[in-house]
UniProtKB/TrEMBL annotation:
Its EC number is 3.1.3.12. The lineage of its organism: Bacteria, Bacillati, Actinomycetota, Thermoleophilia, Solirubrobacterales. Pfam families: Trehalose_PPase (PF02358). GO terms for molecular function: trehalose-phosphatase activity. Pathway: Glycan biosynthesis; trehalose biosynthesis. Belongs to the trehalose phosphatase family. InterPro entries: HAD-like_sf, HAD-SF_hydro_IIB, HAD_sf, OTSB-like, Trehalose_PPase. Removes the phosphate from trehalose 6-phosphate to produce free trehalose. It catalyses: alpha,alpha-trehalose 6-phosphate + H2O = alpha,alpha-trehalose + phosphate. Its cofactor is Mg(2+). Keywords: Hydrolase, Magnesium, Metal-binding. This is Trehalose 6-phosphate phosphatase.
Length: 280
């Protein structure tokens, strides 16, 4: 497709044009979707996130029609599947380091992260103190990643400042830090990126086109993986879609082929992927 300057919201005509190469041969098309902020609206507590039923129904149909469908999340793959609740699609979890294939029981973990769980969890336990609890910082244990959330804390600024200190401590102890939407993740010092997870998921796929839709910094790696596949001739068409939000990084819109407006915009895009006439 011809890359276009992203607009605040994709018009229907622009959307139809962008989706045409994906719709041309669904069996040879990969549909790759981030979850939080893309399929599931952002909510105060990570545990309360859910994918609206209308979006779920569309995804079920997309899984029937398209050759390779996966949700690509910063969450553990098992949590991602619990939230989306569809067994016929695959889940690439923990920013590309876990792969739970459609119908699978156990995720396959990247060996590079496998041995880091204990150390990361110990870091999370050490960081968890009375002050963090007073500030209502919430800690999310993701196995090989520990996340510190400050969304909805009574004093978000104070909570963020306490989390800054945790980030400094993590880096001093040789761990890596990654900032997302009102969340700090402390990770092992190994490659963890959605792009690597996608390349491994699609390693043996016979593809003509690929779509990725995401809203946050971690999705840039996925955009770049699609760019790599395009440059290497592994796909003839790649469509990178940014889900616009006030919190989203500006680079995502800059690197996108198309911008849609929030999770409603994503639902509309999924409808158009299935519609008889994508322009209506
Ligand atoms: O890659 P994703 O599927 O988009 O996951 C990114 C992170 O999503 C979750 O946190 C975000 O969503 C929460 C629920 O809406 C929100 O409360 C939080 O502020 C957001 O950062 C999840 O908890 C993280 O583990 C994921 O990495």
């Amino acid at each position: 497709m011809t890359p276009a300057r992203p607009t605040a919201e994709a018009s229907d005509a622009r959307l139809a044009e962008a989706l045409a190469p994906l719709r041309a041969d669904p069996a040879r098309t990969a549909i790759l979707l981030d979850i939080d902020g893309t399929l599931a609206p952002i909510v105060r507590y990570a545990d309360d996130a859910h994918v609206p039923e209308t979006t779920r129904s569309l995804l079920i149909e997309i899984a029937r029609r398209y050759g390779y469908v996966a949700c690509v999340s910063g969450r553990r793959s098992s949590d991602a599947r619990r939230i989306v609740s569809i067994g016929t699609i695959s889940y690439i979890g923990s920013h590309g380091t876990e792969l739970l294939r459609a119908g699978g029981i156990e995720p396959v973990l990247d060996p590079a992260v496998r041995d880091w769980g204990r150390r990361i969890q110990a870091f999370g336990r050490d960081a968890d103190n009375a002050e963090l609890r007073r500030l209502r910082v919430r800690i999310e244990d993701k196995g090989s990643i520990v996340a510190f959330h400050w969304r909805g804390a009574p004093d978000e600024e104070a909570a963020r400042a306490a989390i800054d200190t945790i980030a400094g401590r993590a880096e001093q102890s040789g761990l890596r830090t990654h900032w997302g939407r009102k969340v700090l993740e402390v990770r092992p010092p190994v490659r963890m990126d959605k792009g690597a997870g996608i390349l491994s998921f699609l390693e043996h796929a016979e593809l003509d086109a690929a779509l990725y839709v995401g809203d946050d910094v971690t999705d840039l790696d996925a955009f770049r993986a699609l760019g790599e596949m395009l440059a290497e001739g592994r796909v003839r068409h790649a469509l990178r879609v940014c889900v616009a939000s006030e919190e989203g990084p500006s680079e995502l819109a800059e690197e996108a082929d198309l911008v849609v407006d929030g999770t409603d915009g994503v639902r509309h895009l999924l409808e158009r992927l299935l519609a008889d006439d994508p322009a209506t």
